[in-house]
Amino acid sequence: MAAADAALASEGNTGVFAQMGGKLLLVAGIAAVVAVMVVFWLWSQQPDYRVLFSNYSDKDGGAIVAALEKLNVPYKFSDSGTAIMVPAAQVHQVRLKLAADGLPKGGNIGFELLENQKFGVSQFVEQVNFQRGLEGELERSIQSIAAVDVARIHLAIPKPSVFVRDQQKPTASVLLNLRPGRTLDAQQVSAVVHLVASSVPNLPTTNVTVVDQNGNLLSDTTKKMGAKNLDPEQLKYVEEIQQSIVKRVESIISPIVGAKNVRAEASAEIDFSVQEQAAETYKPNQQPDAAAVRSMQSNETKSANGEAAGVPGALSNQPPPAATAPITTEATNADANGQPVNNAPPTNTEKNLTTNYEVDKTVSYRQQPMGGVKRLNVAVVVNNMPVVDKKTGKVSYRALTAAEKTQINDLAMQAMGFNKERGDSLAIVNTPFAGEPQEVLPAIPLWENPRVIENVKDVLRFLVGVIALFVIYRKVLKPLLSKLTTPPKTAANQGEAPDAVVNISADGSNAAEKPAYTQKIETAKQIAKDNPRMVASVVANWTNGNE
């Protein structure tokens, strides 16, 4: 019996060690199950990724990835490899943080190139670095335009010379890669040209060349507008005038017939020719008393008949010849009747009067500005007037009356600035509007709807995670927990019951057995079943007489 007790004790120690090993394995199994559950849960709760930056250069891409790793922000690349994606909840925050670090730079190097200038560099290297920095800054400025995706600028700055005759003006070439579906009008191209010319000293606008990605020359400063060419600015001006007229006509008629019951179109003929006229006009002669005297000249001349006359000369200056007979007769101043006689020689009198009047003249100079309106043509279509039945509330439509048409016609003429002498025309038509047909799109099956597919993927991901967690809990975790929480059966626990009274019969057999003895028998059977070698050794000791 002592050997049996020793065997039982040894078996109990072995059971204790086995029990401790089982507990360790149980704890390890529980940890593995919990890890698997966490992995499934994280897989089912993967965040939604959104684009952080796209179409970046290789240099900017490497800098962005390095910054994301430094910030411990998860990222991944798109299927095409042209975009970096981060969780949707962190997109804006990460963009602001990267912007504070100057990322992305767009592949352009600006004046920060001069910050790491080495000591002792030559003047040529300094000039090259300055030119590269200036080109990079201009590229960044031009890329801020909405229609421009990428810009490249090449500056040709000649070396300055002390001789005026040898001085050369710098030139610039600008290559613009526009965004898909975007174009630059003449005004925007001119803005780019002036931006570059204003940033480089002594660079005229005529020396700036702008080319797009298709090789089209956008800044053709030498091209002159011919008679057969259309000026985009003029076409834009005509369009603005027509839209303004349409807006005025519709806004004045809409309160009468409704905002959606009137349509108007206008056609404007604009005169873009420039006319200059100078005129000098003379009016008919006026009456002398009403005319203005400019100057007056008067001359009076008197001469006698016996006086010397004629052309002055040698003959007229000779003295008179000598008298042939003496003059003895005394001059008398009376005639035969005794009346006095005037013996004075006769005289001639001549008067001249010249009067100059002001000339009535008008000089005018007129210059007609470009863009004058030659003619306006406006067409207006008005829908029938809606009428609401007071009893049923049903809406019906009726044609316009003559008075309503006249009223609308007068208002439209005033709004468009109708001029009969100019040849303007206005046409108003009253007709019911045709209803716009509703486009019936074919129903997209649920299995082809992208939004439904994404939602189904999310739901399936969640369900798979939940089912996997439930199966692991029922099949693995719950049995392990039950074994861990159930107390083990040991020999000490089995012998805790109080000993029962044993009645021995006359032949030496037990009349009654204690419960403890029964448990020991069962334990011995279990030991014999689990470890038959040990039982065989005990029986051998018994047969040899060794108790």
User: In the CATH scheme, what's the topology name of the domain at 123-221?
Assistant: GMP Synthetase, Chain A, domain 3
Shape: elongated
* Count of helical regions: 11
Structural classification: alpha+beta
Low-confidence stretches: 491-513
Largest sheet: 3 strands, antiparallel
Report helical residue fraction. 25-40%
CATH class of the domain at 123-221: Alpha Beta
Lateral strand order in the biggest sheet: 1-3-2
Distance between the termini: 7 Å
Radius of gyration: 61 Å
- What is the CATH superfamily classification of the domain at 123-221? ANL, C-terminal domain
Tell me which CATH architecture of the domain at 123-221 applies here: 2-Layer Sandwich
Tell me the fraction of residues in β-strands, as a range: 15-25%
Overall mean pLDDT stands at: 76
H/E topology pattern: HEHEEHHEEHEHEEEEEEEEHEHHHH
Number of strands: 15
Keywords: Bacterial flagellum, Cell membrane, Cell projection, Cilium, Flagellum, Membrane, Transmembrane, Transmembrane helix
Function: The M ring may be actively involved in energy transduction.
GO cellular component, one term: plasma membrane
InterPro entries: AMP-bd_C_sf, Flag_M-ring_C, FlgMring_FliF, FliF_N_dom, YscJ/FliF
Overview of this protein structure:
By secondary structure, the protein is an alpha+beta fold. Among the domains are: 49-101, Hypothetical protein rpa1041 (Alpha-Beta Plaits), CATH 3.30.70; 123-221, GMP Synthetase, Chain A, domain 3 (2-Layer Sandwich); 244-274 and 366-430, GMP Synthetase, Chain A, domain 3 (2-Layer Sandwich), CATH 3.30.300. It contains eleven helices and 15 strands. It has a three-stranded antiparallel β-sheet with strand order 1-3-2, covered by helices on one side. Strands 4-5-6 form a three-stranded mixed β-sheet.
